[in-house]
Amino acid sequence: MDKSTKQSALHAHAWVGVFLSALLFLVCFSGTLAVFHQEFERWEQPGIPEMNTTDAATVEKAMNAFVEKHPEPTDHLFAVFPTSGIPRLVVENDTVAYFADSNGNLLETEQVPFTKMLVDLHLYLNLPHSWGMILVSALGALICTLIVTGIVAHKRISKDAFKLRRGENAQQYQIDLHNRFGLWAAPFHLIIGVTGTYFGMAGLILVVVAQLYHDGDRDAVVEKIFTPDPVLEQEVAQPQLQKAIAQMNTLAPQHPLLFLTVHEANTPQQFIEIYTQVPGKMIYSENYRFDTAGNYLGTAGYAQGHWGKQLVYAMYRLHFGNFAGIPGKVLYFVLGIMLTALCVTGMEIWLAKKAHPPVLTRAWYSVAWGSVSALALTALFGLFADVSLIMLFWVLMLVNLVLSSAFSQSSKSLWLIIAGSSVLLLVSVYTLYHGAAGFTPAALQLNLPLLAFAAWSVRKGTKTGSRQTPGGVPLVNQS
């Protein structure tokens, strides 16, 4: 490509990234953490008994106990199996959920406010869902734009593909790191951008396709992608979950059970749908359907459906890395950190070129590193206070921004130390609060990495602080 094209791509890349840097960072950072949303759910209630398997009789007993405790009308009933990725048995309706033990006895209610806040931050930026989904999806499209313009603007892709200069010029090292992360992980980042865009734009796509091919009939489009519900007329009765689950040993013996749903609960159209993971397929699940009496009706047909249907049904797993167990999640976490680092290094490169405007530089550090302390303190308050964690998080972010603007000493090193100290405080109080449960695998699987981050952050902040001016603005060679 000619020089003017590369220059135009570079300008587009820079200005899109700068103007939306804070939103892009929050979406990427929260999404990286949300890869472990199931682990965060376990972490929030570490004392729940865990199991690897359960049987049909236990599930039905737990559901019967739940319905007896909550007889209020509901559209759906759910049972989440221990093979779903969280080694716990959960029964719930549309509003409340309970854990159950290996004998089918109900335990405490499911309370995961921090996990819900974190996932909501990634999916909607904590905005009303209809608007938040559109905004986040637009940011997904902009991520794709940044990837393409970044590659186009790169002057020597093949020559510099593995160049990472770590000499005295730290700014050059940061530019190299930004370019290497952007190039090496571009396929993954495109997948994240495209799938993220899809979630918000699916409604618009639905309307367009309906107008073009089905005279505006949206239901006709939905039925081509998602298998319609079976048409049933039965006596209203208690769903025979045990009979339905027992048949899965014959119907799909190699498919781990994810969860089951009782649709149209307590109506003549009621039916049972069991969701199973399909080995060797990227689709979220294949769904097995049964009537109220537990008689097998057939599958939803996703595993053997048209490739386009399978692709749509694979979007969730592609976006969140929900495959290959913990190794897949670790891979997505590392690649997500690279995407988040692109947001951070891109903004810091721009700030360096503008000679680090003091107020803007401090404000950026309060967003990039202050968000860590805001999340840690939000989780900490969530242990004790029944408050809106969404509101609390944004209040803390606002306080960070005000403090960084008001005090000239609020440097990058200070925010790093605050981030590490906040995480250390969270883990310490968490362990004291939960007692022996704080040393279960459900707790340690996150607390140990959090402690490692706290140690790194404090060490990095201390080291960085020695290379900053008294006003908190980095020196020329500051990394």
UniProtKB/TrEMBL annotation:
The chain crosses the membrane at residues 12-36, 131-153, 190-213, 330-351, 363-383, 389-407, 414-433, 439-458. The keyword Transmembrane helix applies. InterPro entries: PepSY-ass_TM. Pfam families: PepSY_TM. This is Peptidase. Keywords: Membrane, Transmembrane, Transmembrane helix. Signal peptide: none annotated. It comes from Lacimicrobium alkaliphilum. Coiled coil: none annotated.
